[in-house]
Amino acid sequence: MVRFAVHPTALNNRGWDAYFELVDKGVNWATELEMYVIIDWHSIGNLNTEKFSNKMYNTTMDETVKFWKTVAKRYKGNSTVAVYELFNEPTNEGGKLGELSWSSWKPTLEKLIDEIVKTDNEKIYLVAGMNWGYFLDEVIENPVNRKNVAYCSHPYPQKRDKPWEPQWEKDWGSVADKYPVIATEFGFMGADERGAHIPCISDESYGEAIINYFDQKGISYTVWCFDPNWPPTLITDWNFTPSRQGKFFREVLSK
User: 209 CB contacts (<8 Å, ≥6 apart)?
Assistant: First the structure.
């Protein structure tokens, strides 16, 4: 499985037609390799107030609906494109971006799904939780009231202190007992690596713990990021030299 992170400003800067030609190439390549594709609307912030953490993530509800209707029309019936990740990381950054709670976010997600299923009702609609896509703790009591919904979390190491597992179980992992869960972003890097930042700093003990936990819970995952510039990276250059976490996760995936 490979995740295509579509940044709103990159889409607009390149042009929708030109950008989707690139996505088509990626989807065709994935089909040849018998891989599934997640298409991810890669914005960070509060879609309800249309305030975002960085200008590269700027979008609107209208544009978000337009994006998903475009995707749905283009990939309806395409079994390689299996998952639509509706919005990458919802956050209000501690209130700076306006009110955002699960109770106010859930209706927005349901509205998006309603718009998509008018065209394509056969995909998995992937829903991120609160706090930069981390918390899913309110899902069990108040799930998204639509069909074909799965949930995603981004459980980077510094979201919690050790021991991780009991907190992961409470924060998002217990949802996997009832609904499908995909960790669409996670990974680690040393404090001395280029681009090191919270919440990603850790070591191989985190890698071992999170993979064991995913295996126990039946949780799918895509590691961030197969790129030399977006940390934590899996590769250090376009010769595909593996980074520290790249070496670790290559070994995991090769098994």
Answer: 164, 165
Domain that holds residue 214: 2-254
Q: Provide the token pair at 10.
A: 């990159």
The interaxial angle of helices 204-217 and 164-171, nearest 10 deg, is 50
Residue ranges of the chain with per-residue pLDDT less than 70:
none
Is-contact 187 242, C-beta < 8 A?
no
Between helix 244-254 and helix 204-217 the angle, nearest 10°, is: 30
Q: What is the pLDDT of residue 107?
A: 98
Spatial strand order of the sheet with 149-153 comes to: 2-6, 37-41, 81-85, 124-128, 149-153, 181-183, 220-221
DSSP category for residue 250: H
Residue with tokens 């934590």: 232
CA nearest 48: which of 3, 6, 136, 110?
A: 110
Using a 10 angstrom Cβ sphere, with 0-12 exposed, 13-18 middle and 19 or more buried, the burial of residue 71 is buried
Q: What is the per-residue pLDDT across 173-224, written as a single tens digit (0 to 9) for each?
A: 999 999 999 999 999 999 999 999 999 999 999 999 999 999 999 999 999 9
**CATH at 221:** 3.20.20.80
- Decide: 16 and 63 in contact? Cβ < 8 Å: no
The pLDDT, as a whole number, for residue 69 is 98
* Sequence letter at residue 218: G
Considering only CA atoms, which of 163, 98, 102 is closest in space to residue 134? 102
How far apart are alpha carbons 109 and 241 in whole angstroms?
Answer: 38
What total number of domains does the chain contain?
1
CA pseudo-torsion sign 190, 56, 181, 218: negative
What was the pLDDT predicted at 129? 92
